[in-house]
Amino acid sequence: MMTFTDLTSVPSDRLMPLTDQLRLAVAAYLARFKGSSREHTESDLRCFLAWCAERGLDPLAARRVHLELYIRWMQEIRRFKPSTISRRFSVTAGFYKTCVIDGIVGHPPLSTSAARLCPGVTDAGLHPPAIRGPAHRGPPVTGPM
Q: Measured between alpha carbons, how far is 43 from 26 in angstroms, rounded to an integer?
C-alpha cells in the first residue's frame, strides 16, 4: 500500500510549470465564480495544484488514488478540520467535472467508491459522516419520549 512517505516531494525550485492546457482549464473553472467566491475557490484549487506539483504529478493525469492521497494528506499531515477538507475537495471535484465538460479529460478521476470516501463529490452534496466528523452528525437517536 502506498503511503505519504512513498510520494517523495520535489524541491520547490523544481516545481512543474503549469501547462497551457492546465492554465486554460483553471481559468475556465474559475470563470464560473466572481468576487470573494472566486478568491476562495482559487485559493482552494491552488492548494491542490501545489500538492500535485510537489509530487511531480500532472493534475490532468491524476487518478482516484491521487485524490484519496490528497485527502489523507489534508487530514493526517496538514490536520485540516473536516469542514476545510470538505470545502477544498469540493473545489477539486468541481474542477474535474468542468474539465470533463470541456473535454480536457475523458472522465473525472472520481469513482463511486471514491465518492463515498471523498467529501463533496456526490451529486446530492452529501458528505459521509466518516469524513465530516462528529460535529456534523445529528443528535443521537433515542427511544420514544
A: 12
49 occurs within a structural domain: yes
Within-domain flag for 42: yes
DSSP codes, 82-115: HHHHHHHHHHHHHHHHHHHHTTSSSS-S--HHHH
What pTM was estimated for this model as a whole?
A: 0.66
Residue 87 has a pLDDT of: 95
Q: How many domains does the chain have?
A: 1
Average pLDDT, the chain: 75
Q: Which residue has the cell 462528529?
A: 134
CA dist., res. 126 & res. 105, Å (int):
25
Region 52-77 average pLDDT: 94
Residue 102's domain spans which residues? 20-134
